Amino acid sequence: MSIAWILGAAATAAAAVLTERRLIYKPVRHVLQNPGHLDLAFEDVTFAASDGTALNGWWLPRAGAHGTILHCHGNKGSLGDRAWIARDLSALPYNVFMFDYRGYGLSRGGPTAAGTRLDVLAAWDEVRRRLGGADHPPIALFGSSLGGATAAQLAAERPVRCLILEGTFTSTLDMGRRFYPWLFPRLTCHNRYETLAKVRAFEMPLLVAHSPDDAVIPFDMGRALYDAAPSAHKRFVELGGPHGEYTWRTSPGYREAFADFLAEHLPAPAAVTPLRPSGSA
What region does 50 belong to: left with phi over 0, alpha with psi -120 to 50, or beta? Predict the structure, then answer.
């Protein structure tokens, strides 16, 4: 085996790895808009993953909140592209916590599958701390596209009251086989997200939303996630329009289904009736 062949093979492998990362992660390193620009009260939060990576997020509190929506965004841009999502979510009776993965926006580091796992765990820890540190905090987990995969990773490791997956793939390996078979994904797919494998164990309430017009992540992947979940409380919503985040603007009925699902599985805390002293009338 010649040195030239070895060097050529190494160069090809390195190029495949770089291509994989560029296909999965498309971050920008700035935040041009935040909820304050939309007249929303929020806290700009810096928190840390367990490996010490500094992460950036937004906390939008709500008086009398029924719980908290923990949001995991897709693979493009940063939080700065999603202030309008904060506005839409904060119209519901919940606190909202949104964050950037490492390498996105103001978060440090660079994205990998192992790193985004630490990031979502850190986000859950941050929300739990803000909710008083309960073992089973009232958290609804919402992920779109790549965010659905990171949300599924989190739901496999931490308790959540319910999970919403929007336009999410079954696995990065499945996506590679479907769209990039010439990259030999079984050999070159190092950042693996195994959403379907995680969902097969989920018994928490689950809402899966996907559009048959999605040309980025095939509709059948959304159906496969829904069909695989053993949850007794699951719902599928067919969206309209192309791939994108928060398609309730192009999908009549989705906003209502989203709100109803949260109301059912993350309702207002039950009122506590004070005990009367014994012997009172």
Answer: alpha
Single-letter amino acid code for the residue at 204: M
How far from 112 is each of 145, 151, 193, 224, 226, CA to CA, in Å?
A: 16, 15, 10, 25, 26
Q: Do 71 and 84 contact (CB within 8 A), yes or no?
A: no
Residue that has been written with the tokens 């979502």 in this structure = 120
Asked if residue 150 lies in contact with residue 159, where contact means CB atoms within 8 angstroms, the answer is no
CA atoms of 112 and 267, how far apart (whole Å): 35
Which is it for strands 139-144 and 162-166: parallel, antiparallel or unpaired? parallel
Residue 58: beta bridge partners?
A: 44, 98
H or E segment at 162?
Answer: strand 162-166
18: pLDDT strictly greater than 60: no
Q: What is the mean pLDDT of the chain?
A: 88
How do 43-48 and 54-60 pair as beta strands? antiparallel
